[in-house]
Amino acid sequence: MSRYFRPQSLDEALRALSSAGLNILAGGTDFYPARVGSTVDEDILDITALDELRGLQETEQGFRIGALTTWSDIITAKLPAYFDCLKLAARELGGVQIQNAATIVGNICNASPAADGVPPLLSLGAEVEVARADSRRIVPLDQFITGNRRTGREPGELVTAIHVPRWSASARSHFLKLGARKYLVISIAMVSGVVEPDAEGVIARCGFAVGSCSAVAQRLSDLERALTGEALGGELSARVGPAHLAMLAPLTDVRGTADYRVDAALALVRRTIRVLAGE
Amino acid sequence: MDAIAFSVNGVARSVTAHPASRLSDVLRDHLGLTGTKVGCNAGDCGACTVLIDGKQVCACLTAVAQVAGRRIVTVEGLADDRRFARLQQSFHVHGAAQCGICSPGMLTAAADLLARNAKPTEADVCGALGGVLCRCTGYRKIVEAVLAAADSGLEPEPLTTGRAVGRRVPKPDGLAKLTGAERYAADEFPADALWLRVVRSPHVRARFSVGDLAPLRQAHPGLEDVITAADVPENSFGIFPDYKEQPVLAEGETRFRGEAVAALVGNYETVTRIADHELPIRWEPLAPRSTMDDALANRGEPIHADRPDNVLIHGRVVKGDVDMGLARAEFAAEGEFDTAYVEHAYIELEAGWAERVGDRIRIFACTQTPYMDRDEVARVLAIEPGRVHIVPSAVGGAFGGKLDVSVQPLLAVAAWKLGRPVRTVYTRPESMASTTKRHPARMRARLACDRAGRLMAADFSGDFNTGAYASWGSTVANRVPIHASGPYFVPHVRAVTRAVYTNGPIAGAFRGFGVPQSTIVHEALIDELAERAGIDRLEFRHRNALRAGQPTATGQVLKASCGLVQCLEALRPLWRRAVADCDAFNRDQPPLGPSRGLRRGVGVGCMWYGIGNTVIANPSAMRVSLRKDGRFLLYNGAVDIGQGSNTILVQIVADALGVPMDQVGYVMGDTDLTEDAGKTSASRQTFVSGNAARLAGLDLRQRLLRRLEVGEDAVLGVENGELVAIDGGRRSAIPLGYLPADGRGDIDVGHGSFNPPTVPLDTDGQGEPYATYAFGAQVAEVEVDLELGTTRLLKITAAHDVGRAINPTQVEGQIHGGIAQGIGMALMEEYHAGKTENLHDYLIPTFGDVPPIEVILIEDREPLGPHGAKGVGEPALIPTAPAIFGAIRHATGVTVRQAPATPDRLRAAILAMQR
Ligand SMILES: Cc1cc2nc3c(=O)[nH]c(=O)nc-3n(C[C@@H](O)[C@@H](O)[C@H](O)COP(=O)(O)OP(=O)(O)OC[C@H]3O[C@@H](n4cnc5c(N)ncnc54)[C@H](O)[C@@H]3O)c2cc1C
Ligand code: FES
Ligand code: FES
User: Counting atoms of ligand 1 from 1, which one is nearest the CA of A92?
Assistant: First the structure.
């Protein structure tokens, strides 16, 4: 019979985690589907009673999304416009019953190539807060996720929050998801983009990321460089070319061919820019 | 294990369970609240949706430890809140539950919505309920029901005597489905039942041997037995007498991935914990015949030793002289088309339990065909059919997939051997891997017409991949040639088919038996012909539509109820409007370029479909009795799989007797109580069993009128414990107490039976294979994103000739549901063994994928039908994919040659055309 811990305090949880190999359970929306037809027989650390991990706070540097923040919490939270990408992703992730239970941190930790939370957070420049019994570290998200369903979380560590840096009030973002049906669909490709125009409407800072087109969602750094310093508007989207997506390495699977994915990702990036630039 | 306390439906509960147990299992198994359904255990179907502190959540993804101290509301508790009771009533009146297995999830999700938003829009409803899948209704009536409940709800019309047929009466079994009371296959079982878990082949094709099982049993004390082929008295079954070739448990060789090789029987924890690799099975993988090309290349060992060419059967219909017809025609169109394996994806998983009762066996399970199950189980156990008692559960969707036995023989063998009740519920991956699919087809055809656009000839050949075992492959191979030239008058026809064995999943019966596939072909070619002949696509079809008096491909001359012309005429104004709208939209679009690529299109698809078995006798027999309590009882052998036979049969019987519907009860499908009504397939229950039920009702009425010594026109009834008739001014009555009843409590019994008249087909397939045909036409309006290859449906308008709508709400429901499945087949559904064995990789349409549907009912009475009715279950699905493909072609110029038209395929075809 497997053991099951549901501690009330973070300290207790971290202590338990340091002493035993425990599987972390949050909303369970990745955990249970991986166990269809079998009974749970691993030892579990259920973190859902850790009130310290609940909630979304504004900090000096930006926003802290506690590890128990659900997708529904994101949808209903009052957040600056540059969080729209994350809100749009939240609305299209599963159905409402999934959004009510599933956590953003769980989505990151599960590290699926098709995780819809990753491109928005990458484009926003998010960082991951990881704690262990005696220490705490902050890792940029693009370094935290290391591969298909692999992260840099070490034994004994718990992800306690995601930090999203503050962007200027003018920043705005957008997210586009492509799937073969309307609801409850795993992305064939998805794109998130954030732009921060200065007073003249010139892009001071931006972030773009594409998911489902490689083992780990990719930031489009070349594109970000190319667009920084450009004026929003005009035919900005036409400036995006296949070379900006060269780092994508998609697979062919039941959801789409590799060629299609790259082709579609390019279209989605252009559309994201059109929306952000008001073209 | 600690006790976990929480409240369910306002009642404090405490359970002792492993804290990681799924809440759904705890509700069902510990608390007996089986209203919460489990369709996947993976969050994909939403059937398990409950409210936790007022928010909708999947109970299958919730550890019971997480609900400590929280408030849970399940479907059983909804009625405690007046708003939610109104919601249930609204579902009832709007026909929003067909099989009802999704209804608990739909209702709880809707309750969450209404509690937050008293005046939701349609988009709000779709968004809030979008996490729950329904395979029956096409969602539209659910949307209507939620919107109406938010408005005011609706009262059902009062029941009146003798006037049930043709009215929108709610289902007699509707409220049970909406309160959680209905008993589906997984909802009933004795507490002491052993659990059975099937061990399945991980290989596509392999030889295997089973070693000594004693060590496994010693290692796992909770394991009572391991059943293998050696335990099965007669280890072969199959739909038709000639093809009893499928083993209950494979013997030495497996022929498809997921084939059953052994069954572990014991307590649930033990048999689910044992890993398959712990079994002493030695596997020797063999080269599989994965595709029809592999199988037809005919190298190496055949899949079945007695079928050296891997062909199960050939089908053939030949009329006139096709070569001459083609030679003389002015225009021709031809092409090759492929379709995929399609999964039924009913939300209810196969389940049931069996028990040995003396020298008999009793099986409670979901099925479409209790009498075939009885005979199949009797064969497998090598006992007489009379010793098998099948008790069908309520069925949570089937669509042809529950025509073949699944759990029944396995449970029977185990319960027979062990002398203890045995139960099982398949997992979703297991259900998908092991049960039948729609046949993938590769079809080639040539269609030709004269200068005036009159069809001259149709030349069709099609191969249908029947997978590892015969199942219904011969039915498909025989039905397709009859229908392959479409619902048109074509003087010269040659249509040949083969059902081909492969090591793929077994293809069997699925709504339409191959006709949905072949309809894609003729409708695509008709569009091309119309274009070549310069005739509007709808008018071309109208010109060629089969009319009464014209011979079909099999030389049958339909004398009546041949309503395609009326369907097309009813669609004509809409068609013209849609074509004009779409041309206007496309004109206003900017020229193609990056991010600019929306194009609209309109398509029309036509169908016809023979009701009932192809030539093979398919009688139905019904009995109706007057009970000693004064009620009437229909002994109904027809299983309602959600399509509503329980309702329409009761409507028909009530009118035949001349009494209000609520005085007629029924038993369904119990083989000890009912007579054989045949299977619920081939859209036959309204037509065939409807006739039998009507005759039984009329027979009982005659008998009772005779007892009362009154004339034919007397008004019959039961009042204050008396059987009463009023004939003109004269009242005649007998106290029920004076009338002796038999051992079952029946005072008098009326009998009725009906077998549709057919004429056998000769070697050219000429004859009268069906007594009547359904006709229909649908128009699809779509918007294609040329850059992404995605297709958005704007509207579907469906005109169907159903003879007579016994219950218009239910007919519309069938049409909506058929269209939803047609949408899936057209745009997203493609089953790959080992890759899409769940409901997130295998996609079926959701709330957001079914557009508004307008239904136009054409009632061209069938003289042979009960009140003129035919059938509609399968017909509804058939024209949808062809209409969508026609619309895609109109929008893009691309002819879809491979279904489904997934975004990547459509985009590739668009690029290829632009090059
Ligand atoms: C029907 C359905 C539809 C879905 N649709 C989508 C979709 O469209 N897009 C999408 O991206 N995802 C989708 N998902 C997956 C999505 O729900 C999850 O990725 C979710 O966000 C994970 O959160 P959770 O709280 O449920 O995690 P859990 O299942 O509890 O855990 C997930 C993993 O993360 C680990 N973990 C969780 N929290 C922590 C922590 N604090 N520290 C360290 N490790 C942790 C767990 O050990 C586990 O390995 C869907 C899921 C379902 C069932
Ligand atoms: S059973 Fe829970 S979502 Fe399907
Ligand atoms: S009524 Fe929805 S699945 Fe059957």
Answer: 8
Q: Tell me which amino acid residue B30 is.
A: H
pTM of this prediction?
0.98
Instruction: Report if residue B334 sits inside a domain.
Output: no
What interhelical angle do B140-151 and B103-116 show, nearest 10?
40
What's the domain range around B724? 620-754
Phi, psi of B142 (to 5 degrees): -70, -45
Cα B59 to ligand 2 centre (Å) = 7
User: Would you say residue B55 has pLDDT above 60?
Assistant: yes
Q: What is the pLDDT of residue B719?
A: 93
Before B900, cis peptide (omega within 30)?
Answer: yes
Residue B12: strand pairing partners: B7
User: How many domains does chain B fold into?
Assistant: 4
Nearest C-alpha neighbor of B879 from the set B804, B801, B785, B808: B801
- Rounded to whole angstroms, the Cα distance separating B490 from A168 reads 71
Q: What size, in residues, is chain B? A: 915
Q: How remote is the CA of residue A104 from the centroid of ligand 1, in Å? A: 7
Name the closest ligand to CA B41: 2
State the helix-helix crossing angle for B515-533 and B537-544, rounded to 10 degrees: 110
* Tokens 């008001």 -> residue: A278
- Mean pLDDT over each residue of chain B, to the nearest integer: 96
Q: Phi and psi for A14 in degrees, rounded to 5? A: -70, -35
At B594 the pLDDT is: 57
Same domain, B828 and B682: no
Residue B122 — very low, low, confident or very high, per pLDDT cuts 50/70/90?
very high
CATH architecture of the domain A1-46 equals: 2-Layer Sandwich (3.30)
| Chain A CB within 8 Å of residue B424 CB | no
What is the C-alpha separation between B740 and B268, in angstroms, rounded? 49
Touching check for B222 and chain A: CB below 8 Å?
Answer: no
Average pLDDT over residues B648-654: 98
- In the CATH scheme, what is the homologous superfamily, with its name and number, of domain A172-277? CO dehydrogenase flavoprotein, C-terminal domain (3.30.390.50)
pLDDT of residue B590 exceeding 90: no
Q: Do B497 and B316 touch, CB atoms closer than 8 A?
A: yes
Residue A230 scores a pLDDT above 80: yes
Biggest CA–CA distance in chain A, Å, is: 64
Does residue B801 fall inside a structural domain?
yes
Residue ranges per structural domain of chain A? 1-46, 172-277
Q: Is A106 on the interface with B (CB under 8 A)?
A: no
